[in-house]
User: What shape does this take?
Amino acid sequence: MNAAPEFEPAAGDTVLAARNIVKTYGGTHALKGVNFDIHRGKVTTLFGENGAGKSTLMKILSGVTTPTSGSIELDGQSVTFSSSSDARDRGISIIHQELSLAPNLSVRDNIFMGREIPGATGVDFAEEARQTRLLMADLEEDIDPMTLVQDLRLGQQQIVEIARALSVDSRILIMDEPTSALSATEVEVLFKVIRDLTARGVSIVYISHHLEEALQITDYAVVLRDGAITATANAKHINLEWIVRNMVGENFDLGTPPTGHTFGEIALSVDEVSVADVTSSERLVVDRLSLDVRSGEIVCIYGLMGAGRTELLECIAGRLSAAGGRILLEGNDISRLSIAERIARGLVLVPEDRQRDGLVQTMSVGANLSLASIGAFVKGMFLSRSQERSLVDGSIRDVRVKTAGGGAPIGSLSGGNQQKVVIGKMLTTSPKVMLLDEPSRGIDIGAKAEVFRLLSERAARGLAVVFSTSEVTECLSIAHRIIVMRRGRISAEFGADATKEEIMAASGEAVLSDQEEHRSHHRDRR
Amino acid sequence: MASHVAIFGILAVGMLLVILNGGIDLSVGSTLGFSGVIAGFLIQGVQLTALGVILYPPVWVVAVLVCVLGALVGLVNGVLIAWLKVPAFVATLGMLYVVRGAALLMTNGLTYNDLGGKPELGNTGFEWLGFNRLLDIPVGVLVMAVIALIGSIILNRTAFGRWLYASGGNERAAELSGVPVKRVQVSVYMLSGICASVAGLILSSELTSAGPTAGTSYELTAIAAVVIGGAALTGGRGNIRGTLVGAFVIGFLSDGLVIIGVSAYWQTVFTGAVIVLAVLLNAIQYRRRVKLPSSAGSPPTSPQKDKAQTADPALEKTAG
Assistant: This one.
């Protein structure tokens, strides 16, 4: 849109070309006609925010899912992948963002899972172990082939995942966030491996949230935003600022902080709260964090994946127990109360994953909307159908859910409307403090704007709102205050006049050089 | 046949509640047998050696005590599952053995034969449940109808019913919406235990004897009835009406076919085939509804009443 492609690849240079790829999930358009080229022996990096469609595109290219429409050409031949093993047989393999290892099996068994080397008596384990050792040597990682994957730390598991992809001798290797759990030295080694591979003619597709790191290794940059490609360029001609600009876009208005009302008393006070990691109790995912939110105030929590945002919000809501600290709601300690009791006192959470934690798929729109406030329409022993209907209809109108009615199946709604149902469900309990974990995840930009408008209306009427996001544009929308979390702590706090670059720098996403930082301060943030 | 249907129906209603919650209760057959034995024991008279008297509780007291016992078995199941996080299958499988063993211990493997009671002791009338008719309908069937009605009201018209559907459909979402998921879980197993006890009373009354091995494998019959009735073993989906139909189908297969002269061996084969076929048809039906969301339309009332209100979660996975 704002940057014309700065190069035209020669035809022979392209090993795989995706044309007009469209993918829809229910009512959500994850990809809207994407053209994407992979260049032979080069690293092509795909940049984009969460929910931009990067992972979806990579799943299509690696045969994990099929596109709704569009075609894929491999070496100029049109192909369709029936499964990921079909794609693997054609030389395309993928390192998934979520690890896909069997923790109960050894490193060797994981690497050769599904394509065991046949031997005289079944499987030739010795050969498998030998090859595993070679792969580990390539990756400069001292892991015994017989170690169980569950005994490895996350970074090492990631190495195993990478080794598995390397072991198939693929022509195209897709790496979806391969470095998220790696240490700096491990990243160095990985980059060396990537350079070796490209020298041998392997084409790499690379995805990372660590923009700077990606910029180091990439030859071509492609930016995806809301399911469409917004810019393509040779890495020689671009810098971080170019990526950020194209990633987050410039002009879509997600609203401004509501004004004209004064903040009330402190509604929610988080006092030195810690949350222990589920897997190892020594590590704190939230580390003695303190935060006050006044009624009528909107606070945004920004941070990368794993920064501790979700854990913090779930701890405040009562889903996770705190390892230390206190949580006060209007001055009363609620640290020991159950989730239900916290809801009754006016503290609600809209969870991050609405499919897993937000909605009951087997129930109707209406039953989902009324679930948190059943008490409001119980007469004696029984539910009052008429009262429930009026509550549901009121809520549908209030949060503007587009639905055939309260009886419609929840699955018939688009992602954005489902999200409004989850928000509506919690709003019908008349909360004083509303926590929202990534409320805009997986919904389109129009629905996003509506959700934010809804929140700012409620804030103007005195609701304290805390929402988390991993999209920097959203920080700069309705929030009065922006808090950046990094490794379980608050690394910075900004007012509504912060710049995208400042926020991203504080999160550890991109450390801009002095000069760039200087320039960005002079640019208007929108 | 009618009384068979009644016993399966009562067990199945209890089982439905458990399955709606996403659990399973394998202990109902044993609870049924144990209940009969306890009823027989109470009617024979409780000897209190310390006081030198023999207590003969009236029949209604026997019934109440037996139901309390069923609830206790359910409580143990529920606590194991909800609080101690034992998988439902394992916890209730364990109780299947423990309770059956308790019944065998009580009687030393023998059967209580005389459940008639004695008029001079004031504990007669136990056979009323199994033998008598009201308005020409067997009492057992009436009891089933009342239990089904209560179950239906609980499911459709109370907060508890809504909690049950919600926590069975998605426990995490229900919990975050303030539903007391653990309490619901425990209650469900207690209700299932009570249903099993009632069924045990009816069966032993019908046979006028209480054997410790009564009701063996009835838990599987109850599960079959619920499944034939369209409930999903994953929870959150199913209703009383379907379950009663399922119980009737099972009753017809086990007794009706024999009456019309089909070999008992074939009947076993048919039962198995019907279970699989019913579930298969259900799955096909769901799939079609998902493919044509517009035809699913907007059914007006609560979800429990209409299976159309479901969707394939795979369709709803959002892009990441």
Remarks:
- Confidence is low (pLDDT under 50) at residues 290-320 of chain B.
- The first strand of chain B starts at residue 46 and ends at 48.
- The CA atoms of residues 17 and 188 of chain B lie 6 Å apart.
